[in-house]
Amino acid sequence: MRKKIMAALDLLLLAAIAYLALWPVPVKPVAWVAPAAPGYVGVHAVNDRLAHLNMIDLGREEGPEHIVIGPDGKLYTTVASGNILRMNTDGSGQEVFVNTGGRVLGFDFDAAGNLVAADAVKGLLSVSPARRVTVLADKVNGQPIRYADGVVVARNAGGKMYFSDASTRFAPADWGGTFEASVLDILEQAATGRILEYDPATKATRIVARGLAFANGVALSADEKSVFVAETGKYRIWKIDLQARDLDLGAGTSPQAVVLLDNLPGYPDNLMRGLDGKIWAGLVKPRNPTIDGMADKPFLRSMTLRLPRALWPVPKAYGHVIAFNEDGKIVADLQDATGAYPETTAITETRERLYVQSLHAKGLGWLKR
Q1: What secondary structure letter does DSSP report for 264?
Q2: Which of 1, 8, 193, 267 has its CA 20 to 30 A from that of 360?
Q3: DSSP letter (8 states) at residue 114
Q4: Which residues pair with 351 in a beta bridge?
Q5: Largest Cα–Cα distance of the chain, in whole Å?
Q6: What is the tens place of the pLDDT at every residue in 114-162?
Q7: What whole-number distance in Å separates Cα of residue 305 and Cα of residue 20?
Q8: Helices assigned H by DSSP within 215-341
């Protein structure tokens, strides 16, 4: 009997090893070298400036992932349900402005007052003040835009729109949602994200740059000659010349693209222009030594996806937003090590308040300026 039990255990062990080594997974991990995490030192020294937020109750809604003050003076925010909410700046008068039937992440307004949305399912959309939804772009060069993420509209006469297509490999519609698709893309590190330009005059879409490990938040420079881009998967923020055409950032920096902020202590998400030349960025999760340690070990990253999700090395909750200027100098750093307000994606700044964006918070947090 003992021999039979041992033989059965051996078979189970072999089956487990075979499963962990051979079971098909959707990613084809690429080896890369993760820089040594800087830790919370210097300008990123631990602080509690993001703790004890004031809260706006959103009822059953959660996750005010992106916040913009519209031309009508109202506060607009996307939430996890797929709705875009509209309210007064104190949180009163809440209503559902629109639901596109997809999942809007970043958005901005054009000169005519249309809400221009990066919808992770449907592409680049325009929503009129009367709430009519129009698809502006869902393809580029005949290929689908799989994961529209952040968008910014130029204020010059042309009103061109610059937006990120976070991944050409993993569409949220196919992989269980935006978070699940982002995990797959960042785990794979194939760096298929790109920055696109839509010209409303010609209705043409072109590739500005590609080769980004999950292209995320975007913001324009003050002179609107460059775009700042959060590359979430590699902990850095780029500055890219808008005259670039199909620039391959996988080949490294060039006269048209430089890494403005490198080796951040967390995963950068949205980028938002603030006041006095600031650009706000949210670090949606802190760095994780286990994940960094697997950077040059593609096999281990494949194996991770064969484990129950509860065993994935997901970084802990940690509230963290930073602000930098166009020279790459950090000018503000706000943290909450408790992660009470989780997955902070950026800050929307007004003269009176700092509204804190979040992927999963149960309300909308804010601080007095």
Answers
A1: -
A2: 193
A3: P
A4: none
A5: 83
A6: 999 999 999 999 999 999 999 999 999 999 999 999 999 999 879 999 9
A7: 9
A8: 289-293, 298-304
